[in-house]
């Protein structure tokens, strides 16, 4: 029997689900209340029934410098080559002391397997944390032996003493009657130039991550997984202002619009929104102890649908696929992986592009302001940045199913308001930013609409920052942050909804830092942090976990609130963590 809350499905889907098991109630381990260690509300990757084969990538490595950490990989024996699910598990820790947050990446054959950052330690807390990623869609890569590396640069000396340790493994769940083999891409190809793998530095808007490829000639669907991480001068891009305002409001220049642009042979092919990740040393390190910001430890790639280009990419000629970050201002690191589904019954798919209204729509935002400076030099008002683009990209491919017409219809919008109050006793800046994506991918065979994939994505960010003098000659810096991530997806087949899901992840954090007259930190107060992660789907799956902390100690943890029987409960083949899915109407398992 399906769980309560199940919504109506078609006969084919209901029949399939009747033969599948569900992941048992996701009950949390021992309560984290009272802990100072890393505590997050994020779900782990749900698992199918069966015993996995485990392949260790590396174990107990110490990261003390920027040296290479290579590893060799071979597919597991005893689990076949067509798996129900593949999961990456990684564990990290850093010794107590002083250390910056660091970027962590795992690679295999040039393909990124994991991307995130590390938790900063304190003088008394040695944090440890666990991350997981669903790599089932990368099964084609994992069927071949290869070489990979862990990239986690660190500095350990008399000042920065924190040593980072890490281990990682892959778990392969064999296909069975209860857990059928997943329908996965036939080719998994990196865009980076490093054959083993590393992120590509994009210094300006014109810096590309690109590769020229001669691809299989029978592509019927294509996607690109994109991660774009801000670094250096761009770390706090979400608070920056256009250059012409930077001196007046005492902020970083370069503007605050960032967006990844995907192109094929120089022609715009899609857009990947950039998430405003805040690292654990960001703004005020106490904000993120013990709960970091949204996805800080485990970035989720954004999947761009390139299926309208399938016919063009199958023509046997070399094609250049590229990613640029619009607005990059020294600098972003980027990773991109091309996923190709191939027609098993044809050696050659023919087709072409029919329409592309993204071409000619440059990613150039509109800037406005209400700033005013009075006779005393006090500044007040706001700077606004706006961009919204609606586009349609359509193409066709002659496949073994007949002619398939594919359309991506998408609106991508960015709004940002930077509000300032600056006078002799106050510097206050309030950031309100929202990145949104509303899109649908459609596939038709003849006159029949056979598949639709809808997505509604939101990245809200609010930062309220003030820096004020105190009566004793010192200063206080008060910060409040709200980060959010919501994603609603819906798959339809022949006009009927097969599956729908909602993911929500929010973090709210606040703290006040105290400084002496020489700007040395002398203490902090009022630290609070709360994270809420929720997932629901049309099959009755439900996940909800909330954690809260005060002064760096977990004060509350609740699981299953609002779920049937007060228990977290999801199907093993779903993706409650918000990891990307391919927009196939026949579901991705």
Automatic annotation (TrEMBL):
Signal peptide: 1-28
Keyword Signal: yes
InterPro entries on file: PNGase_A (IPR021102), PNGaseA_N (IPR056948)
Top-level taxon of the source organism: Bacteria
Record's keyword terms, sorted: Signal
Pfam families given in the database record: PNGaseA (PF12222)
Residue span, Peptide N-acetyl-beta-D-glucosaminyl asparaginase amidase A N-terminal domain: 72-343
Protein name: Peptide-N(4)-(N-acetyl-beta-glucosaminyl)asparagine amidase
């Amino acid at each position: 029997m399906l769980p309560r809350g199940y919504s109506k499905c078609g006969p084919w889907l209901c029949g399939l689900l009747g033969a599948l098991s569900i992941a048992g109630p996701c009950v949390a381990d021992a309560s984290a209340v009272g802990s100072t260690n890393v505590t997050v509300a994020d779900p782990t990757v749900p698992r199918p029934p069966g015993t996995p084969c485990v392949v260790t990538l590396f174990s107990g490595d110490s990261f003390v410098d920027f040296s290479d950490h290579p590893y060799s990989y071979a597919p597991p024996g005893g689990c076949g080559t067509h798996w129900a699910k593949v999961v990456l598990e990684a564990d990290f820790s850093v010794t107590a002391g002083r250390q910056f947050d660091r970027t962590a990446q795992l690679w295999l054959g040039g393909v990124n397997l994991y991307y995130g950052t590390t938790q900063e330690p304190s003088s008394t807390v040695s944090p440890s944390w666990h991350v997981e990623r669903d790599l089932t869609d990368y099964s084609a890569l994992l069927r071949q032996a290869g070489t990979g590396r862990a990239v986690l640069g660190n500095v350990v000396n008399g000042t920065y003493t924190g040593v980072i340790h890490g281990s990682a493994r892959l778990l392969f769940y064999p296909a069975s009657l209860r857990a059928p083999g997943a329908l996965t891409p036939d080719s998994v190809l990196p865009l980076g130039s490093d054959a083993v793998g590393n992120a590509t530095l994009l210094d300006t808007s014109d810096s590309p991550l690109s590769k020229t490829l001669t691809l299989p000639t029978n592509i019927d669907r294509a996607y690109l997984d994109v991660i774009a991480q801000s670094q250096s001068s761009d770390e706090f891009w979400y608070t920056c202002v256009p250059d012409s305002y930077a001196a007046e409001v005492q902020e970083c220049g370069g503007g605050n619009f960032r967006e990844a642009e995907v192109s094929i042979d120089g022609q715009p092919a899609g857009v990947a929104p950039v998430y405003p990740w805040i690292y654990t040393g960001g703004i005020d390190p106490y904000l993120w102890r013990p709960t970091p910001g949204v996805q800080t430890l485990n970035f989720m790639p954004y999947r761009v649908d390139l299926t309208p280009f399938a016919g063009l990419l199958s023509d046997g000629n070399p094609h250049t696929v590229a990613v640029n970050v619009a607005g990059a201002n020294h600098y972003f690191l980027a990773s991109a992986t091309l996923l190709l589904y191939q027609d098993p019954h044809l050696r050659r798919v023919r087709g072409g592009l029919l329409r592309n209204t993204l071409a000619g729509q440059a990613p150039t935002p509109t800037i406005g302001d209400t700033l005013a400076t009075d006779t005393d030099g006090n500044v007040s008002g706001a700077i606004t940045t706006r961009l919204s683009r609606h586009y349609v990209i359509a193409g066709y491919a002659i496949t073994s199913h007949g002619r398939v017409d594919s359309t991506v219809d998408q609106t991508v919008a960015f709004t940002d308001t930077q509000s300032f109050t600056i006078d002799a006793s106050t510097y206050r800046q309030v950031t309100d930013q929202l990145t949104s994506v509303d899109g649908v991918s459609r596939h038709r065979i003849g006159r029949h609409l056979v598949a639709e994939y809808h997505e509604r994505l939101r990245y809200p960010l609010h930062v309220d920052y003030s820096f004020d003098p105190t009566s004793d000659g010192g200063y206080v810096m008060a910060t409040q942050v709200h980060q959010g991530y919501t994603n609603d997806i819906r798959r339809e087949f022949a006009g009927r909804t097969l599956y729908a899901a909602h993911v929500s992840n929010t973090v709210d954090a606040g703290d006040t830092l105290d400084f002496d007259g020489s700007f040395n930190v002398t203490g902090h107060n009022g630290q609070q942090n709360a994270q809420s992660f929720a997932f629901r789907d049309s099959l009755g799956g439900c996940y909800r976990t909330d954690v809260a902390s005060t002064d760096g100690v977990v004060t509350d943890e609740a699981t299953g609130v609002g779920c049937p029987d007060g228990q977290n409960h999801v199907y093993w083949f779903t993706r409650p963590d918000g990891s990307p899915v391919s927009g196939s109407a026949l579901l991705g398992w």
